[in-house]
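Recap from last week: sequence in, structure out.
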Amino acid sequence: MTNLTIELLKKEAKLFSVLESKHEEPTIYGSTDGKAVGTYLEHKFQEYLSQKYKYIKGNSASGIDFPELQVDIKVTSITQPQSSCPFKSARQKIYGLGYSLLVFVYKKEDNQQTKKARLNILHSVFVNENRTADFQLTTAINNILKNSGNKDDLLALFSDKNLPVDEISAGELADEIFKNTPQIGYLTISNALQWRLQYTRIIENADKVEGIFRLV
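Predicted structure tokens:
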């Protein structure tokens, strides 16, 4: 059995999206629970892959679906393309989540005659790890650096954006930014007990920005 790679994962996500968009499924008919629909699609995709490839499946300890490839699956409805993800540190907003994302965006259609639902996969997008930071924050940081801003400017920005850090961590982050300029991210990451990731921008910028690939 072939080992799964990122390129194969992208290729299979594209094929799977086309197949799934034609499939009618009774178990999610009438469901308005986005988490249940997401779990259904993730499990089905994992099952589809495991018949063709060798890879280690993620678990709650690793926190992501493909720990060897450093990729996590996100499934979301087109009506509000967003999902949650574990909060590790405020640094993720600036330097990215620490792994890549494979995002399936669906529109669910219930068929009252057949009592089955179809998930029309409207977008499948692969986001490289280096593009998973927060767009507004990384753009503002880059603007400060271009305009010869100093540490106080960065600390004021962190405060304005309510970055969840204490004073010491904020100072360390500011020092790091001067040594290591963050790339522009394309997620919107909202503060909460878990990060809330919003995907509209990656859908809009897929194939327009290096590191964001439109599969479907």
